[in-house]
Design brief:
This protein is α+β, with helices and mostly antiparallel strands and 173 residues long. It has 4 helices and 7 strands. Helix 1 crosses helix 2. Bound molecules: coenzyme A.
């Protein structure tokens, strides 16, 4: 059975483990950098969890009482708008760091986390939600499309380089 609850500071090391496995798999130089990445993600997360904010939540999914996946949801400016003056940055509901441990994939954990993140958005009276996905991440794109997310635009960080999609979903029909 999948249950979802807000993460606590003591969950940070296990959540960092899942994020590292999901976003920094042990390929090439990452093999050597993984312990450092894991520790640094854990410290950042612990800091976020220790400073409760009305409009930030990290959720974790438990399967058989073990942490199987995570997602973060916040009202914030879109990533990549750091150069804009703060008065010009539009704050919106944004989902990030959706990740599921390799052993728990294709069990519906991400679908459940996404739906709980959407519920948090409704509790915060938000009418829509946005997130980014790499264009090459076909599995995640399929998940989002099936949950009603639509492509709003394609972005590239630099002139060349991997393309990412900004997806959006209305929370009320
Ligand atoms: C993408 C990810 C979060 C999916 O987690 P998950 O718990 O396995 O996903 P779910 O079981 O909820 O999948 C729901 C549906 O999404 C689609 N889907 C999910 N992963 C898929 C994959 N690898 N390939 C194809 N379709 C996939 C399927 O339609 C699936 O339904 P089905 O299993 O009945 O066919 C997980 O693979 C992961 O952590 N990947 C690495 C990190 C990442 O890419 N995060 C997303 C960043 S935008």
């Amino acid at each position: 059975m999948i249950t979802v609850r807000p993460a606590r500071a003591q969950d940070a090391p296990m959540v960092a483990e899942i994020l590292t496995e999901a976003f920094h798999p042990p390929v090439g130089l990452n093999q050597f950098a993984q312990p450092w990445i894991r520790a640094s993600l854990g410290r950042e997360l612990e800091r976020r969890l220790a400073r409760p904010s009305a409009h930030y939540r990290c959720l974790i999914a438990l399967v058989d009482a073990r942490i199987a996946g995570t997602v973060e949801v916040a009202i914030r400016g879109l990533p990549g708008t750091w150069w804009m003056p703060s008065f010009a940055v539009q704050r919106l509901l944004y989902v990030s760091n959706l990740a599921v441990g390799v052993s728990w994939r294709r069990l519906g954990v991400a679908r459940r986390l996404l739906s709980e993140a959407e519920q948090v958005g409704r509790e915060w009276n938000q009418s829509s939600l946005k997130l980014h996905v790499m264009e090459s991440n076909a599995g995640a794109f399929k998940l989002y499309s099936a949950q009603g997310y639509e492509v709003e635009r394609t972005e590239t960080e630099w002139v060349v380089g991997p393309r990412k999609l900004l997806l959006g979903k209305r929370l009320y029909s």
